[in-house]
Amino acid sequence: MRKQQTYQWPQLTVGVCYYPEQWDEAMWREDLRRMREAGIRCIRIGEFAWNKVEPEEGKFTFDFFARFLDVAEEAGMKVIFGTPTATPPAWLTEGYPEVLNCRQDGVPYRHGMRRHYNYNSPVYRLLSARIVEALASHYAPHPAVVGWQIDNEINCETCDFYSESDTDAFRTFLQEKYGTLDALNRAWGTVFWNQTYTAWEEIYVPRTTIHNSTNPHQVLDYIRFVSDSAIRFCKMQSDIVRKHCKPGDFITTNGLFGHLDNHRMMDEALDVYTYDSYPDFAFCMNEHPLQSRNLNDRRWSQHLMETRSVCPHFGIMEQQSGALGWNTRMESPAPKPGQMTLWAMQSVAHGADYVSFFRWRTSVMGTEMYWHGILDYDNRDNRKLRELKEFVQKLQPIQELAGADYEASFALVRDYDNDWDAELDAWHSRLTWKSQEEIFIAAQLAHTPMDILYLLDSTEAAELLRYPVLFYPHGLILTEEHAALLRAYVEQGGTLVIGARTGQKDATGQCVMAPMPGLLAEATQTDVTEGTFVGPADGVVCMDWAGQSLDTGVYNEVLALTGPEATVLARYAGNYYAGAPALTERRLGKGRILHFGGTFTRDTVRAFLDYLNLSEPWGDVLTLPADCELCVRRKGETRLFFVLNYAAAPQTVTLHVPLTDMETGETAEGAVALRPYEVKVYRK
Ligand code: GLA
Q1: 207: helix, strand or coil
Q2: Fewer Cβ within 10 Å of end Cβ, the chain: N or C?
Q3: pLDDT tens digits, 88-140
Q4: Which of 54, 306, 318, 678 is flagged as catalytic?
Q5: What does the alpha-carbon distance between residue 173 and residue 222 come to, in Å, rounded to a whole number?
């Protein structure tokens, strides 16, 4: 069982990110006054301002932020202080070039951007510890300070590290993990292509190779190593900050980024987790070939689900308030009227109790001068400030919500080993991301609130049993612990749905010499006799499920029953395996396990949701059109229904029972019209 988060916001709170060092001091008071007037109660500062405190090595000056904190205190503003390690000063990188992270070919990343350091440089760890100690010991006692943010967006910009310190630390990591070179050689299958290591010094973080194709088992361990390094770096800082924190203050960091076990980081180093939500990324980063454009308008809900899995009552450290853009990349449109509020409410609907907008005023200088904040360069009141005030107003009547749980009807299961394996294994990748996306889309269209649940070392069956149904689409890496856990979930009453290629690999990422679904084969009473990608000449391969013809996706496995309790629910209707079982079900203990040989499409997922009684779970309360998302948050007996209209057009929602419209306080029933981008919150 995971430990509970150790901090929760006592009330829904609105904040903003502010950079006192980027503006004339004469502006501070007026800025803070205007923030307070708009309803902002907390600001985050300091996360890039190392030089303001240590302008020269070992010379500390605390006046600047001391003055600012006093002004904040006077203005009644609370402060989250960021540790500045994401941007080492020029004196540091020049004096100690070994702190720099490197490209895979060993060329260092130079000063001028951010996050150009590596976590394992002993000098960087030392100098980071020293600045954090200096900051925390001076500023944590200040009454305005209520929390700390460690670094900034750990593993953002790049989540790959190739410096010499990383290679040194990687060797230590591997020695601790494997003990002997023999064990490592076995785990990495180094007999293949003559990669056998005869000394630890022969091992490096993955280096440039032909086709950039490196030993997959090594790369999997390398990603685990990067995650471990980032967590240790974060914990080193939070241990220091914690010594100086006032009781009740919290430590957080803002995520979510790759090659990082965010759950472990949360459990070992943080009190609460925050996320940076920029929904427009879904539109300006569409180059990912697997990302269909469908439902991009609410794709960020998937990330909010992931954040909720890390920390159920999270905060948003950076909430998009304007167009996104660097001077070198990304040209996004400005949010339309209503969209800023919609996105902020999307965060709240998914579990955020703190929403802090990025940033108070658009920077007039630097790489991010097109990453727009609330105010524009001219500093006048504007539409976005008006919208922020409206958002604050919208939160007033739902203050009781702070700490309310998100109520999901089922969960999508993930785990870090498979996430990372799917990143480096093209065959795995093609199945996993697509199926996850299609499950999300189907749940959206069926208005079925869902969670994401990570299988962790600490996970127990009781945590799984919070959900009547779990989809674990393509758990290629299946360990004995996870197989036992999933089986226990089923035996105790859960319904588990698994898809193609489940159980193909062990924890090293090597393929297992046993029939699939491997360690779950006994539970499913099935066997995979063969499997194939569906080629361009195969057309769409469908299965026939109780008269419905459903696309079985990009990869198909031919199933066979191996035991008397399994039954066939659907058979393939095309390709050379027409007539063979495509979907089976076995009742086991108090639950059941469904084995699907294909990959998921929104239509098949919809059929699963219908079969499992999960479509429109709130259909007797309200029905929504496809352009609207439904989220449910619950505290005790109170349930709040969030209806979010992502469309530029008005939508009609039908309320089948009388509900309280939280904004007006009046009872509503029947057909209700939502304006473009409007959000309604109802209480039952
Ligand atoms: C991130 C960072 C911020 C800012 C924004 C915009 O989310 O945390 O410092 O850079 O992106 O680029």
Answers
A1: coil
A2: N
A3: 999 999 999 999 999 999 999 999 999 999 999 999 999 999 999 999 999 99
A4: 318
A5: 9
